[in-house]
Amino acid sequence: MAPRPARRATKRAQFPSRGTYSEALRIGVLLRKETVGGMLLVLLAAIGILWANSPWADSYFALRDFEIGYEPWHLRMSLGAWAADGLLAIFFFLVGLELKREFVAGDLRRFSTAIVPVAAAVGGVAVPALLYVAVVAPDAELLRGWAIPTATDIAFAVAVLALIGSHLPGPLRIFLLTLAVVDDLIAITIIAVFYTDSIQLIPLLVGLGVIGVYAVLAQRYRQFFHLKPAAAWLILLPVGVTAWAFVHASGIHATIAGVLLGFTIPVLHRRRDHVADTEPGLAEVFEHRFRPLSAGFAVPVFAFFSAGVAIGGADGFVSALTDPVTIGIVVALVIGKPLGIVTTTWLTTRLRGISLDPALKWVDLTGVGLLAGIGFTVSLLVTELSFSATDPHHDHAKVAILMASVLAAVIASVLLISRNRRYRRIAHSDAEDQDGDGIPDVYQQ
């Protein structure tokens, strides 16, 4: 009898996935842009808080509540509402664009590399929501805010990451960004499903039709207008604004339009589409043009108008601290986020037979989980949708978001700074290029 051939040893998958060198470079550029935006976000939010609690607070609220626009089209809103419904749509457009890129040409296109960050994001949404519900359960009215602590602020988290050390291992950075992007997708779905009270069918159908036209133009702008990608936005921008206006008039939060428009933009998979590296695609052009607008203006201005809460002195602060909404949000973001992310990641890797990258430890993932507890932009938006401006819980929820974000940032900083020396050694090892081809050897193994 012939001997059986020896089985080939299968290589056990590792997490986080290192990805390709080009993907690592792209993520690095994206993180640097988000870092600048995060710093501006923190600065404008601080100015809003200080102004709202200063002797000139009346001028702040007068500015925030000043109305402008055209009423018949449901576009007469306060400046604060314009920031939440209008400017924030730019941010969500880029979220949709980033998701499209990840699904087409990034790590999310493969189930093996997508399963862990997607599962971690789901755990990072479910556990905080359950903790919030457990805290406020005695008062059914407060359950409306269950989704407030489910979101992660990409810009804020990345800004903190940049301040505490730039030597975080590349795979862990990619994991944080992918986790936050998927987290935003879940938050967008929650807003669309649970925070839409009534829908005007005709404006919605018209809006979806315009989005369909936008998609066709985005795919065929070369044939229709003989334009290069750098000039296509001149045609697509007015169509996108029209789609946003109709979706807003339908009663669905207008930021959903931003995500849908982002998904329609074609993303080049250069190896598959046989495109030269020197030729930018439409997604790259739009990201180049709109990310500075989003990170440098839209999100900071939204933070300026949304973070301005009149605390009401020591008594008001004590009242906020004893509110179950405040306690629930702080517990959910600071404890629930890292608990949900790390626990789900551990379970997924065990069930899928995936091992942790030898260069990393679970304490590193705990630090990333704590960074994910920085809920700001989307959490403030969900607060606006959960409680009316006249409800005391509205301001208390915003105080809780600010407190929890600062607390999560401080704890994460203490933990990750202690690991900074190890990160530096890992980064130095990853950067080795012994064959001199310009690509770190770790990406060629």
TrEMBL record:
Membrane-spanning residues: 36-57, 77-99, 111-134, 146-165, 172-195, 201-218, 230-246, 252-269, 290-313, 325-347, 368-387, 399-417
UniProt catalytic activity: Na(+)(in) + 2 H(+)(out) = Na(+)(out) + 2 H(+)(in)
GO MF annotation: an example: sodium:proton antiporter activity
Keyword Ligase set for record: no
Keywords of this entry: Antiport, Cell membrane, Ion transport, Membrane, Sodium, Sodium transport, Transmembrane, Transmembrane helix, Transport
NCBIfam families xref list: NhaA
HAMAP family assigned: NhaA
Protein's recorded name: Na(+)/H(+) antiporter NhaA
